[in-house]
Amino acid sequence: MAASRQDNSPETGALDYDVIIIGAGLSGMYQLYRLRELGLTARVFEAGTGVGGTWYWNRYPGARFDSESYSYGYSFSKELLEEWEWSEHFAGQPETLRYCNYVADKFDLRRDIQFESRVTSAIYQDETRSWRITLESGAQHSCRFLITAIGPLSTPTLPRVEGRDDFKGQSFHTARWPKQKVDFTGKRVAVIGTGATGIQTIQTIASEVGHLTVFQRTANWAAPLHNGKIDAETQGKIKAGYGEIFARCKETFACFVHTPDPRGAFEVSEQEREAFYEKLYGERGFGIWQGNFRDILIDRAANATISDFVARKIRARVKNQAVAEKLIPTNHGFGTRRLPLETFYYEVYNRDNVELVDLKQTPIERITPEGIRTTEKDYAFDIIIYATGFDAITGSFDKIDIRGAGGARLKEKWTHGPETYLGLMVDGFPNMMMLMGPHTALGNIPRSIEYSVDWVTGLLRFATEKGLTFLDATPEGTAGWTDHVKALGVGLLSNEVDSWMTGINRNVEGKQTRIVARYSGSAPAYRARCDAVAAQGYVELRLG
Ligand code: NAP
């Protein structure tokens, strides 16, 4: 398979591939494309039966972008940009999955992707400076370089409550949604969880089901998405304007088309502030979160002004004021968790067939064969939907037995939180690069993916040109970056709140303590730092 590959193994024999990539989502697909350009042999191992990652697995009703479609697609191919037309400002999952398949076909990616192949371990071989990966089937493959493209939100988690397997009806986690359509007609349906996923699901199925019961543990702030079809004229403008759109995403804090307003919330009058919030609430997308006053996510008093504004909107939209109060978060400020965007979500609670159960008042005791038992009563259901989130950021790494030099386990190295070099490498794990791992700039994720893939490709080009077979971060480099990431998180209100962004997941053993798992500086600053490392010939790495 790797016949044309130059064997640069220091000691022996042929490795199966120059590079193995784990995962065929947006990161893995683009990485494969770039490695082919370098002339390296690469194999992608993917657990699913198709490409798309997040968009392959998350087939739940109502799943869609909340970045503008035209800022989300790949930017690397002019031809692709010219050919593909997004039908909505925020495309739905079926369209995005079609897009992923279109990309795979266009660039003939599938011939190097092996589907239904979950990687269970990756062990570094000191003697041969290579990696040996094992699949669930027991098959093994070797490579010089290992690239993880396993996504920050790809390991779903279920509540740790008794009786889950006893339920006689249908039940699904949203990220393991069946490929065939689920018929909700006349059904009694439960949704557990009110994060971005739960909200999209609830607002979509409320009108289809017989009766819907929403089990909410923590209320989340949400704001309108304002989606719409893209008309022909706008389509033309988008295509002509791609250069500007991507240039803007490159300049903004988190790679969205939105970026913080330079003013502080108290630098304008109360009327101006109210008018600004009103404008943002009426606009498409993340403007109210990413394009708001510069201090709403760091200053408690500034945050209180937008929280108060959105709380008033919720009270105005929900008729039953007791229900409205339950939907208004009291333990965190607006935008300090990842903001879900909604489409008539709050109006769902004005329907006769929808009921909200506040799990803070009446926690779930167990799942029964018929439904759900809370401390208050038994509920009967035909379908239970778990919109209960993910073991985020480090969870997918934890699931693979990754061992570096001398057999050191990555999971053990990260017991007290991830330690990385630029979010891309980890000292002691030579020749392993991570795409969208911990400590990297996430934001509008395909923009970040393209940058990280290009950086990794640059490093591998350098290694190939110099005949290097060993690339490792230094302990100082890893400690320095980890400290930097932690320092950037100081003062952010989001780091004082329990959420997947702070590494909390009560459904997972050992994930009850907040950690700094994501880079929270600006994307331009992140890129400048990584660019400097490349420009200086990667002297910060141990090379051999
Ligand atoms: P999430 O934000 O972690 O929300 C999980 C929800 O389930 C929370 O409401 C949580 O309550 C609840 N929950 C978890 N375990 C529970 C239990 N044992 N009992 C009761 N409730 C429980 O997960 P998510 O909604 O899947 O979203 C994760 C991230 O994926 C988002 O923040 C976003 O970045 C991404 N996403 C993006 C889109 C998009 O539009 N592009 C859509 C969906 C998701 P607590 O808050 O009390 O823990």
Question: What can you see in these coordinates?
Answer:
The chain is an alpha/beta fold and 544 residues long. It folds into two domains: 17-51 and 109-155 and 392-493 and 522-543, FAD/NAD(P)-binding domain, CATH 3.50.50; 191-386, no CATH class. It contains 17 helices and 20 strands. The protein has helices at 26-38, 54-57, 69-72, 78-83, 93-106, 196-205, 232-251, 270-281, 287-290, 300-317, 321-327, 345-348, 395-398, 410-413, 445-466, 475-489, 523-535, and strands at residues 17-22, 42-45, 113-114, 119-125, 130-135, 140-148, 170-173, 188-192, 211-216, 223-224, 341-342, 354-358, 364-367, 371-374, 378-380, 383-386, 401-403, 432-434, 471-472, 542-543. Strands 1, 2, 3, 4, 5, 6, 17 and 18 form an eight-stranded mixed beta sheet that branches. Strand 13 (364-367) and strand 14 (371-374) form a beta hairpin. Helix 1 runs parallel beside helix 15. The two termini are 26 Å apart. The site of NADP nicotinamide-adenine-dinucleotide phosphate (NAP) has 23 residues, from helix 6.
